[in-house]
Design brief:
The chain is mainly beta. It has a single domain, classed as Immunoglobulins (Immunoglobulin-like). Helix content is 8%, strand content 48%. It contains two helices and 19 strands. The strands form three sheets. Strands 2, 5, 6, 9, 10, 11, 15, 16, 18 and 19 form a ten-stranded mixed sheet that branches.
């Protein structure tokens, strides 16, 4: 839609959606999904998930993550629905019933188009879908620039034995394909992953990793890796705990009608002690 004055609540919601969709850095507001457990057992267990956009990792202090874009994938690849969703002042929460054995992928996925142009000497901006682009943006707009944007924030939970059915890439946006299973990470050991952009290897992308509990440190203590020609990279975890892994990409290889694309990926991963 074309930018017009909005209520404070709607403006905040738009900012939150943008924070999920746009590239992130270790210093910016961080979007995250934090499960109550990453490895569970028992007959039909549940997990609770906190979802927020915050200054300090895993400490909700800024804005709740909108739940409209949740994408929960069961071990067999089918879609599941969040239970008991609620959005508060600083965080959203929901439950997932793990009614299948294996690994679940819990994500917030956003995509869309951004456009900018000049109209009567004034800059105009628009954000929406490909379906509404032609209806809301003039085809003969002056200095029209269209960018395709995609953002994925996710985490992984395994009930019983780990599996890979839910971990298959969708071919859209920036995605993580685990070589090392995301629920089989241990302190002091190297884990290997692969990044894809729209289904193809994402080469030369810098990946930033930040240990959790930044609220209790003077520095981010972040470290980085870079993908190779096949999109693969390796991370050696310095200690047990929760980690925030993020990467972003911007280039001119967008599918029409866009002339540029930008994508971001973020995951919360738990590393266990040896």
């Amino acid at each position: 839609m074309i930018r017009t004055p909005r209520s404070p609540r709607l403006s905040s919601l738009a900012l939150a959606l943008a924070a999920v969709a746009l590239p992130l850095t270790a210093q910016a507001h961080k979007a995250w999904l934090l499960p109550s457990s990453t490895v569970v057992s028992g007959e039909t267990p549940w997990v609770g998930v906190d979802a927020a956009i915050s200054n300090s990792l895993y400490y909700p202090d800024h804005f709740p993550m909108p739940l409209q874009s949740l994408a929960i994938t069961a071990p067999d690849g089918s879609k599941a629905v969040a239970q008991n969703p609620h959005t508060g002042k600083y965080r959203s929460v929901f439950d997932v019933e793990l009614n299948q054995t294996g690994t679940w992928r819990i994500a917030s996925v956003n995509s869309g188009l951004f456009a900018s142009w000049e109209e009567n000497g004034q800059p105009r901006r628009w954000r929406g879908s490909e379906e509404t682009l032609g209806k809301e943006v003039p085809k003969d707009a002056k200095n029209l620039q269209i960018t395709r944007s995609a953002g994925r924030v996710e985490t992984f939970v395994t009930s019983g034995e780990p599996s890979t059915g839910a971990l298959q890439p969708t071919g859209s946006g920036l995605e993580l394909v685990p070589v090392t299973h995301p629920n089989d990470l241990f302190a002091g050991e190297a884990a290997r992953f692969r990044l894809l952009i729209d289904g193809q290897p994402a080469a030369g992308v810098e990946v930033t990793v930040v240990p959790g509990a930044t609220r209790y440190r003077d520095s981010q203590d972040e470290f980085a890796a870079k993908t190779d020609a096949d999109g693969q990279f390796s991370v050696t975890w310095p200690a047990a705990g929760m980690y925030w892994l993020t990467a972003s990409l911007q280039d001119d290889k967008a599918a029409p009608p866009a002339s540029a694309r930008r994508a971001s990926y973020t995951a919360t991963l738990e590393v266990l002690p040896q």
